[in-house]
Description:
Helix content is 37%, strand content 22%. The protein has helices at residues 3-9, 32-46, 81-96, 120-132, 153-161, 176-181, 188-201, 219-232, 264-280, 297-303, 344-352, 366-378; strands spanning 52-58, 60-61, 73-74, 104-112, 135-146, 166-172, 205-212, 236-241, 284-287, 290-292, 308-310, 313-315, 322-325, 330-332, 336-340, 358-363. The site of S-adenosylmethionine has 19 residues, from strand 4, strand 6 and strand 7.
Amino acid sequence: MPTSLINKYNIAGPRYTSYPTVPYWEEATFSYSNWIKTTQKSFDQSNSNEGISIYIHLPFCESMCTFCGCHKRITKNHDLEHPYIEAVLKEWQLYTDLFNEKPNIKELHLGGGTPTFFSEKNLKKLIDGIFLIANKAPNCEMSFEGHPNNTTKEHLATLFNLGFRRVSFGVQDYSDKVQKAINRIQPFANVAKVTYWAREIGYTSISHDIIYGLPFQTIENVIDTIEKTKSLSPDRLAFYSYAHVPWIKGNGQRGFNDKDVPKDEEKRKLYEIGKSLLSENGYFEIGMDHFATKNDSLYTAFNNNQLHRNFMGYSHSKTQLMIGLGVSSISDSWYGFAQNVKSLDDYYFMLQNNKIPVVKGHILTQEDLIIRQHILNLT
Length: 379
Ligand SMILES: C[S@@+](CC[C@H](N)C(=O)[O-])C[C@H]1O[C@@H](n2cnc3c(N)ncnc32)[C@H](O)[C@@H]1O
Ligand code: SF4
């Protein structure tokens, strides 16, 4: 590809997980009652066919990684776990009250923040509570994001017993200098340990997140990170482009300046070298940022033209209705999108008042729906 063409399109854009993307949502068309109507319509059309998906956002992290663009709350106070789980279950109850039959859950993902901030006991309580008022659809896909520094064997065993078979671990980069700059000290041994445990317990898809373009990251660092990653043979890999969010200052913990972040040609080289190393090592690029080995179900879905992308990432099963629970989560009813309130206090307040805590969104027009379908046909 000519450099001029790359430079022309080398501009920051929104995360491409919906059409229209979040910055183009028209708030004027969105209302609480519109959202409820589209959710009920979508549920009636899809629950008894393909079932529905659930995304649960678990926002707490014990320490601040200063590169992070996720919605999180930094705290060491684990007393926050219990009320949060109770609130998520209340939100789920409010949704199920809208439906005239029990939801059939086809896909469930725990994201964050850090799901493994929560004790295994509380995670079990959460999942048991979800399925107390829902059915598990046949071949239900359950996955979670684990932090290698705090995922325990008990977390992995408990979630496996609840039906989870997929786990992704945040790795980012193994260089000491990069880890120090992003305030995330995470030795290879920690990642190796959780990866072995997950495999030993029986997880069938283990994924690692790595990033190119981090502060101070060099070509040698990318090569070393991919070599170390390869030695643990994850089934999937996310190779993300570092999204630089300079307004996040990290409470003074940020060990880098904007000038330390590789840009343009320098950043592109990190990607090119990473991508070619991944393909030499048996990882196939199945979509934006995502790679999988031939044994992984995403690779099969890619080959059979059955790959789907939604707010949770790539998946091989498609559901028309995805309900996002927890602060900042985004829901998708196919006819509309809705985002939950971001502040914890507001989230609790709205739930106490029996209100599903959506605060912004977009209802798709006929034209939006046609374009959305065409985009899906292309992928
Ligand atoms: C919620 S975290 C994963 C779970 C856990 N909190 C952890 O850090 O291990 C999701 C992933 O998003 C990616 N990520 C976060 N901020 C990013 C950014 N600014 N640019 C690119 N990727 C980012 C990281 O790879 C991270 O592992
Ligand atoms: S990368 Fe993960 S652990 Fe670090 S702040 Fe972000 S969500 Fe929390």
